[in-house]
Write a structure and sequence with these properties.
Blueprint: H1 2-29, H2 31-49, H3 54-67, H4 73-83, H5 87-94, H6 102-105, H7 108-124
Length: 149
């Protein structure tokens, strides 16, 4: 039992040395801050690209790859809040099928992502083929010849 206590004490002492080195490294060079920021951006990129909803994986992931590299901490915080949204809701908001809630409309990361999606939709699809605001997209063929309604 005495050996277990000594091993535990050695591990605790090593952890304290590591945390002191990391703190001094952060204070003197900012490297630890850079590493922490890079890890946070990578985590957000992974969450943006691996949502489990193919359309959002592509659209949100591609946008995040371009924007998050230069994002500040506040923007990353706001993007984390966007990533908490449920996939079907976020998809409907970004494709203009439904109006996003006010807390998302006030979020800078959401507004930037929404602008990207609107631009993408305007460039890649005819407005007649999209659902009107407040109406869900209909999958499959439409015999009326009037787009997706």
């Amino acid at each position: 039992m005495d050996g277990v206590v000594r091993a535990f004490a050695r591990r605790c002492a090593a952890r304290m040395r590591i945390s002191r080195v990391a703190a001094s490294r952060s204070a003197s060079t900012g490297i630890a801050d850079d590493d922490a920021r890079r890890a946070r951006v990578n985590r957000a990129l992974y969450r943006a690209k691996q949502r489990g909803f193919l359309e959002l994986d592509i659209v949100v992931g591609e946008w995040a790859s371009r924007v998050l590299v230069n994002a500040d901490v506040k923007f990353l915080d706001e993007f984390d809040a966007v990533l908490e949204a449920e996939n079907p809701d976020l998809f409907k908001w970004l494709t203009m099928q439904e109006e996003a809630p006010a807390e998302y409309k006030a979020n800078a990361a959401y507004r930037s992502l929404e602008a990207h999606c609107v631009k993408f939709l305007d460039e890649k699809s005819d407005k007649e083929t999209r659902a009107a605001m407040g109406r869900e997209w209909i999958r499959g063929w439409n015999d009326t010849g009037k787009g997706n309604q």
